[in-house]
Amino acid sequence: MIVVHGGAGPVAPERADRMRAGVRAAAAAGNNLLLRGGSALDAVVAAVRVLEDDPEFGAGVGSALTRDGTIETCASVMDGATRRVGAVAAVPDLATPVIVARAVLEIGEHALIAGAGTARFAQEIGIQAAAPGALVTPRAQQQLAAAKGKPFSQGGGVGAVARDRNGNLAAATSTGGAVFRRAGDVDDAAVPGVGTWADDQFAISTSGGEVIFRVTLAHDIAKRAQHGGARAAMKAALTELKKLAPDSIAGAIAVGKDSWAALQIGPAMPVAWVDDFGPNDSIGFPL
Q1: Which ranges in the chain belong to alpha helices (H)?
Q2: Closest residue by Cα to residue 82 from 5, 166, 158
Q3: pLDDT tens, position by position, for the chain (287 residues)?
Q4: By residue range, what is the domain housing residue 99?
Q5: Residue 21 belongs to some domain of the structure
Q6: For residue 89, what is the domain's CATH number?
Q7: In terms of Cα–Cα distance, which of 151, 206, 134 is closest to 174?
Q8: Has residue 195 been placed in a domain?
Q9: How many domains does the chain divide into?
Q10: Are strands 169-175 and 72-79 parallel, antiparallel or unpaired?
Q11: Of 196, 246, 186, the residue nearest 216 (C-alpha)
């Protein structure tokens, strides 16, 4: 089973079909690995990689620009069977942060690496950053021009959660951050417990930006889910977040041992999934 999200936030009508197709392709990529016996971690990384390469989404080549007009990306992965994590933050011009985050997990020397040091680490494992400006898209430039001196999130990154044939769970989240943020900002997608969580019961990926640090959203949902299921946990956690920050836009997806859930506060969060009934997708699941 796999569930994928394309970020909580507004979706212009002309982009809706492209975004639904994008998350559906990502879910299919992850599911293909699961069908071949791949691990849940394999599946979520593969799914997120599809979205990092799709400029419709706020990660990888679709990343938003800092106020300096630069690209910095963040990602994290978590293996529920071991609770090992790997994360990278504020990495200049890195189109594939989820791959580097997984390498951080696998090597095990650190849990989270940030900034220019991450670029050096990526080079050590054979991944080169893009040339400065190569990841900048016309949409990102338009967003920066519209920011008017205030950071805002539009599309909120991407994520995936999965359960493999052995019952193991994993989660991955990746983002290019908020428009007009400061260079060096560590986004929620890079922080296990905030943007990503996986244990032996649930795997969770969230979207929402700085505000979800206030409730450590991914871990909060996981703890609540132990006593009432993932959807009820999401509803309670997002309701609390909305009380703290009434204008917040956020969402989450989760997979457990026998079910999955998705929910958002805000207008949309493209979601696709493959479960026992086959593949499907939606523009979102409002609270």
Answers
A1: 13-35, 40-52, 97-107, 116-124, 138-146, 217-225, 230-244
A2: 166
A3: 999 999 999 999 999 999 999 999 999 999 999 999 999 999 999 999 999 999 999 999 999 999 999 999 999 999 999 999 999 999 999 999 999 999 999 999 999 999 889 999 999 999 999 999 999 999 999 999 988 777 777 657 999 999 999 999 999 999 999 999 999 999 999 999 999 999 999 999 999 989 999 999 999 999 999 988 999 999 999 999 999 999 999 999 999 999 999 999 999 999 999 999 999 999 999 99
A4: 2-282
A5: yes
A6: 3.60.20.30
A7: 206
A8: yes
A9: 1
A10: antiparallel
A11: 196
Sequence length of the chain is 287
| 222 close to 236: Cβ distance less than 8 angstroms | no
Give SS3 for 203.
strand
- Sole residue written with tokens 């996981």: 222
Between CA 118 and CA 250 the distance in angstroms is 27
Helix (H/G/I), strand (E/B), else coil: 136: coil
Sign of CA dihedral 209, 10, 44, 263: positive
Q: Is residue 84 part of a domain?
A: yes
Q: Phi and psi dihedrals of 136, rounded to 5?
A: -75, 125
Residue with tokens 């703890």: 223
Is 287 contained in some domain? no
Q: Which residues have a Cβ under 8 Å from the Cβ of 188 and sit 6 or more positions away? A: 157, 173, 175, 194, 195, 206, 208, 209, 210, 212, 213, 217
DSSP type of residue 75: E
